Write the structure tokens for this entry.
Amino acid sequence: MVIYLRKNKIILKIILLILLLTIIIGGSYLFNYMQYNNYDLIEVSTLKTQNQILKDELSKIENIPKYNSDYLIGRVILRDIHNFYKEIVINVGNDKVSIGDIVVNEEGLVGIISEVKKDISYVKLIDSGYNISVKIGNTYGNLNGNKIDLLDKYSELTAGDIIYTSGLTNVPEGIYVGKIKEIKMDNDNLGKEIIVDLVDNRNLIYVGIIKSIK
């Protein structure tokens, strides 16, 4: 009877050991399976995110209007937070662009190339006070920053009117600049002064470069 009980205890220990090993091996397998699946899920999620970013960037490029055939795309590589509305740096050098070339986004005019180097160019943004000849219907004026002044006091202008480049300088004609935000008489009551709602340039990533008229 004692021998029988001892044998049963041994058999029971063996069974418990087998069960324990099965649980350990199975748990390890399950952990690894879940771990690899999580890696796969993370990788798929990352790829989806990257794919969406590429789609968004491609959409921005495609939305930039092509004003003429002498045209190329550049990418903004630097924008100083302390000089945010005055200048950007793009990844196109002096082998492709020149000082005075026009820079646009999907809406319209954002700046003029002011300096070129081997691999990069500096763009002076319109907000900075660059002088541009513009027209509103049949009325011509000079844009400086977000203001057009010295306009005929009898000119028929209304808030919301669209403003384009005039073509009277080296900037090509017909590029969208903005729209009239506010109209008022100047301090001497001799002419009208316009405040312009300019093209939004806060989120520039890709820009188009148009050759200026020489």
About this structure: Residues 1-63 form one domain. The two ends are 114 Å apart (CA to CA).
